[in-house]
Specification:
The chain is mostly helical and 73 residues long. It is built from four helices and no strands. The protein starts with a helix and ends with a helix.
Length: 73
C-alpha cells in the first residue's frame, strides 16, 4: 500500500490538494522506512519537498532535497 499512498499523494498534489498530498506522502514514507525501502523513502521526500516549495517553505524543501542527495553521495 505504500506505493499506492505515494501515487495518491502525487495525484493530490497535481490537483492542488496539498494537505491530502502531504498526508499520503507521510504515510507512505513511514511505511517505506519500516520496510527499508530507500527508493520510496526518497521519492516521498521529493514529493514533500515540492509541497513545501508550493507553500513557500523553502527551508523545509531544501532540507528534504538535501536528505535525498545525501543518500547518493
Amino acid at each position: 500500500p505504500a506505493y499506492v499512498w505515494a501515487n495518491r499523494g502525487r495525484a493530490y498534489r497535481f490537483l492542488g490538494r496539498l494537505d491530502e498530498a502531504r498526508t499520503m506522502f507521510l504515510d507512505a514514507q513511514s511505511c517505506a522506512r519500516r520496510l527499508g525501502d530507500d527508493w520510496l523513502d526518497c521519492r516521498c521526500d521529493i514529493g514533500l519537498g515540492v509541497i513545501a516549495e508550493q507553500r513557500g517553505n523553502f527551508p523545509e524543501a531544501e532540507s528534504r532535497y538535501q536528505r535525498v542527495l545525501g543518500r547518493f553521495n
